[in-house]
Every structure is written in structure tokens, then in C-alpha cells.
Design goal:
This protein is mainly alpha-helical and about 160 residues long. About 65% of the residues lie in helices and about 0% in strands. It starts with 13 loop residues before the first helix and ends in a 5-residue tail after the last helix.
Length: about 160
Amino acid sequence: MDKDEKGAAVKFPPPLIFVICIVIGYLIDLALPLSVTLLPGRVYLAALALFVGLALILGAVFALKRARTSIEPWKPTSNIVNSGVFALSRNPIYVAFIFISIAIGLFINNLWIIVFSGVAAVLVFYIAINKEERYLTEKFRGEYSDYCTRVRRWL
């Protein structure tokens, strides 16, 4: 491989996008409440979403550490990780943040946060995933293309 010092050139940390969208959803709810109280088992569903999100993050961190590659999208990637949770999704950490955002919305009974979880996912796609995919395609060529044909971007 050629010398790689830049990574995918993602300038804005993707987790912050989710945090900002959660805060926006919370603030909008203060002015215009929109709840999910009629959803039976809301708290249990929230707990399940939180568990799935945390499991995905832990699985991704362990897989990346095992492969000795960086978790930060602005740092160079040493190789394609295609095992563990990366065999289910090319972006398990972002999927985890979606689950966690939805869990927060369910726990505090705020539909706005759930809606803005989708907004965050779209923003992360344009701000980070596009750059990451271009970078990985350029760096790993056929290996990454093969991975993309086998594994979905989200789930």
C-alpha cells in the first residue's frame, strides 16, 4: 500500500451529529411536544434498542482493535475489517448511534428525537460515509468493492 497519512478526510466527528440531533429534538419537544406514550412496551423497546446499539459499538471496537486499525474516520485505515459486526453492516457504529438515539427518544417519550435520528443518519451519510467509501475504494480497490457487494451499508 502507498503511504496514507490522511484517512477519509472526515472533518466533523459523526457522533456529534447524533448528539446535535438529539439536542435539537429535545429542544423542539419543549416548544412543541410530540410523544410516543401510546406505544405499548415503549420502555422495553427502548432498552432493547439501547442494548443493540451498545452491542454493535462494542463489537465494532473489538473488531477494529483486533484488526489493528483506527476507529476514527479521519485517521488512516490499515485494512478492511469484514468480520464480526462488520459482516452485518459496513457501518455498524453509525447503525449503533441510530439505535441509541431511538432508545433515548423512547426512554424520554420524545418522538422528535426519533425523527431526528433519521435526519442524523442522512447527515452522517453525506458528511462521513461518502468520504469514507471513496477513501476505502481508492485505497483497497477490489477488496473493498467485493466487501461492498457482500455487506450492506446499513443493515
